[in-house]
Amino acid sequence: MRKILTSGLIAGCILFVLSYGGLFLAVRFFPALFTQYNNPLFNSDGSRDVLFYLHAFIISLALSWFWDRFKSLFKGAFILRGLEFGLVYSIIALLPVMWISFSSLDISIAMVSSWFLYGLMQAIIAGVVFAKVNP
Amino acid sequence: MLYKNILWSCLLFFSLSSFVLPRYLRSVAANKRWVISENSSLLVNGSTNINKFSCGILAYDQTDTLTIGKTDKGVTLSGSIALGVQSFDCHNSMMTRDLRKTLKEKEFPKLHITFLSLSRLPELTAQPQLIKGMVNIEIAGARKRYEVDYQITVDVQKVIHLVGTRDVNFSDFNLIPPRKLGGMIKTNDKLSVEFHLNMTALD
């Protein structure tokens, strides 16, 4: 349990910096990609900002538990294990969620694809961290 | 003696009223009514940290009247227009819905502009007249008084064009400028409002 929490928190901190740093840079350098977020579908009063920024830790802790449970199935070098872990998570969890989101919400294919890629990158980075910290 | 008193009273009344009545009559005579035509419009320009937006109500669907008059205190401009928030169009359906939500359309379906005064009586010519005036703007239930820059012209069809411009802030009306993705996309507080009233003078 301690190993799950420790590796989850480490991955959470790394994902926090990379995810929000990357998002900040993407908004700054590719603003046209983000104009679609001026949409009432997205919270706009700032009341959920804390929840938004906690996401890195939520996904890291959840993936940490998932890694601890199934890490024996991922073989090879730590980068390869992390990569496979990220792909498995993305296909099992992300793809169906993105599918239902696109089918039911007024969002574009570009937006939902960017969410899928964002989640995939997060899972791969978390997987590499887990493969190193909790092999 | 009685006739003399009546005569003096009449003389006194006319001499006093000569100072009062003409001024009063001049004020009434200066009162003019302008009927706002249906092709008047309102534009709101704003920006976020990633783009600019321009939203407008391009066809004002009511016929209201403004009354302009001159009194001792200055030039009054009275009348108001009520604009439906539902009529805003930002040329992008998501942006339009976002603006309507920000302006609390469900609670306050109308925004009001009430005209109060002008800095001077405008001369109605084809040459643009630049004057200032006071208005009350009411958005989302909050009312604020502003000084507006006006430009007034008259075209060949004798249509009076009154263009008013003014920068306002979302925060003036206790509204929170939209912010998305944890504040990474932020709408700037400042909005530039421009209304264009096309009017005809009533004789």
Q: Helix content range of the residues of chain B, please?
A: 10-25%
The CATH architecture of the largest domain in chain B comes to Beta Barrel
Question: How confident overall, as mean pLDDT of chain A?
Answer: 93
| Large-scale geometry of chain B | elongated
Please indicate the count of domains of chain B: 2
Q: Got a strand count of chain A?
A: 0
CATH overall fold name of the largest domain in chain B = Lipocalin
H/E element order of chain B: HEEEEEHEEEEEEE
Largest sheet of chain A: none
What is the terminal separation of chain B in angstroms?
49 Å
* Largest interface, chains and sizes: A-B, 23 and 23 residues
| Assembly state | heterodimer
Low-confidence stretches of chain B: 16-29
- How many angstroms separate the termini of chain A? 14 Å
Strand content of chain A: under 5%
Number of DSSP helical runs of chain B:
2
Helix count of chain A? 4
Structural class by sheet pairing and helices of chain B: alpha+beta
What does this structure look like?
- The complex is a heterodimer of chains A (135) and B (203).
- Chain A has 135 residues and is an all-alpha fold.
- Helix content of chain A is 76%, strand content 0%.
- Chain A has one domain.
- The model of chain A has no long low-confidence stretch (mean pLDDT 93).
- By secondary structure, chain B is α+β, with helices and mostly antiparallel strands.
- Chain B folds into two domains: 1-30; 31-202, Lipid/polyisoprenoid-binding, YceI-like (Lipocalin, Beta Barrel), CATH 2.40.128.
- Chain B contains two helices and twelve strands.
- Chain B has helices at 2-30, 93-102; strands spanning 32-36, 41-47, 52-57, 65-71, 74-84, 110-118, 129-139, 142-154, 159-169, 179-180, 185-186, 190-202.
- In chain B, the strands form two sheets. Chain B has an eight-stranded antiparallel beta barrel with strand order 1-4-5-6-7-8-9-12. A two-stranded antiparallel sheet of chain B has the order 10-11.
- The N and C termini of chain B lie far apart (49 Å).
- The chains are: A mainly alpha (135), B alpha+beta (203).
- The A-B interface holds A 20, 23-24, 27, 31-32, 34-46, 49, 52-53, 106 and B 48-51, 53, 92, 94-95, 97-98, 100-102, 176, 178-185, 187.
